[in-house]
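Suppose a colleague, Dr. K., hands you the sequence of a protein chain of 473 amino acids and asks what its three-dimensional shape might be. Before reaching for any lab equipment, you can write down a predicted structure in token form. Begin with the sequence itself:
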Amino acid sequence: MGQGQKSGALSKSKWIVAGLLAIGLIVVVSLAALLPVWIVRWLGGKDFQRLASQQVSELLQTEGEFQPFEWSSFSVYTQGFQSRAGALGLWKWDIQDVRTEISPRLLLDRVLRFPEISVGRLLIQAGSKGSFPKEAKEAAGAPSKSSGELFQDVQVGKLEIRDFQLTPSPGTSGWGAQGVSAHIQPSKQKVEFLLQQGVILSPLAWLGEVNLVEAKGRYADPTLFLTEAKLKGKKGGALEISGEVVPTSSLQAKGRASWERWPIPGGKIGVGLFEIPASMSGEFVLQEIRNGQPVGKGQVQLVDARLEPGRGSETVLGVLGLLTGEPRLRGCPLTTARATWFLQPGAYDVTEILAEAPGLLRAVGQIQIRGEQLSGRIELGLEGDLGRKVNGLTGGECFARLENGYSVQSIQLSGTISAPQNDLQPKLTGALTRTAIRTGAQILEKATGGQGAGGAAGAAVNVLQGLFGPAPK
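The predicted structure, expressed as tokens, is then:
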């Protein structure tokens, strides 16, 4: 009888164990069926949206929110992320049309991994309230306990941006971008980038808007390293830039720029002496940023340069052409046209200027610009016979010095960039006026039958010749 009771108890235990196993299996199956649904609901819910917003706000050092997430397995889409109005931070971000996939291991190693993120448009504007404060960063990195304990890191393998835009502002020193495609690979130590196509907006008058060919480099906080940037001008020419920038409120930078056949700002140069249409090649070495302004030195050489008198023959060259009657002074090519220049806040010095059309004209000197004010000295040489002719017409006042086959005249420059002046033009204009009056007197003398003839006409001839003397021989 004792054995029968034991057998019944064992049978009863088996049924209990079997029942528990069945219940456990049902629970497991139910959880397996419901867990993905719960995960997807959680990932598309407000809690995950708030967590992702906090993590990205910390990464971008701003204060902003994501739009709701739409999940399909481990693929996700959102309309974007945007900094709040008045958000703290150096930059405001507007990220639109974001698609990515999340690594399925995120629930195992507590690291939120995005192998690749594609962005339709990224717009960056300078912030209005300085740097992202430490307390805000700490708050962004410390969400609610349940969320904060779930993820301990966010990793992005690759970021593709179809349309990158940077709004020009004082915070960007006037630089901007439109329609640029970007390929970015972030890591803990640095962010590498490759930019292609689009338009670069520049605060430099001589540069203006340019088309981007390619730019590559890296960002290692707080320094931006530009390995190489290739640009093409809207009106032709090529430009290459490299260097490094620390984009903080006290901007720091150094680098190098070189250009080939770049259009001259305004199309021509000449500071009132003559006009030279040309394109330019050269380079500039940026040594530092001082008081928000660039400091450095460079050199430039004019390409396909042509010497012209300018509109209305109002320049020195125009008057020389009228005085001498030399057709080459109305337009001829320059075989040499180059200069060295130094740039610092409020000062622009052009030194070692050399422009030469061999056998006709040579100009050597330097120019200083302070704000809008212009000053300088140019040694202008004319071919020997032309110089002697001008010297005679000016009564020996100009081009009296001979150097290396040229008749040379020192010219003092003054005035402003928009209205340059020099001390030679008044002398030449006076000589031109005297020559014109003498010519008129000679014509009048012949018309009256010879010098000294009676009447009013003869008296006029005597007055004109008394004022200006006989024409030089």
